[in-house]
Amino acid sequence: METKKELRKQILQKRDALSLQERRKKSQTIIQTILSTQVFQNSDTFLLFASYKSEVDVKKLIESVLQMGKALYLPKVVGEDMEFYKISSVVELSDGYCGIKEPKANVCQKFIVKKEETIFILLPGAVFDKQGRRIGYGKGFYDRFLQKLEKEVPKSNLCKMAVAFSCQIVDNGRIKWEEHDISPDYIVTEEEIFHCTM
Fold it and tell me: What is the pLDDT of residue 86?
């Protein structure tokens, strides 16, 4: 079995090889699919991310949440951890960790779990399989954040949805699973939605 590092490198090369036009078209399909899901429409609070390099472009999703007037938070890397801060416009973002767009760390805008709210969190990643095993970018930010979040939020109030191009989906069994790894509930590609069984 390949190591996570080898598999990550191999799949990211495939993703990087997609043309800008292909990525735009596939991203558009993915966003339309997410917007049409019941779980997205019924959520109160959204924890999204700013796309980086050849990732699925989720800018339209960010804009849609803002237009809906729902609470929107984006991540900021703080030391070894990741915190989410509320934004009301994409102009509030500036270059942060590794050049990724981040919000300012305004303590008044920091995400804090409120009782009874339904939370939708969007997960990036390098590689996925259909069962929901995920390889991130190697720093474990999302795994650590989600471990805390899952302790505070009832399962029925939390939806973890990942986005990926179909070239990032590998056969079950190729991803080595570790105890601290967190899997999404759904993975949305331009071709289908996987309801994960991990």
Answer: 96
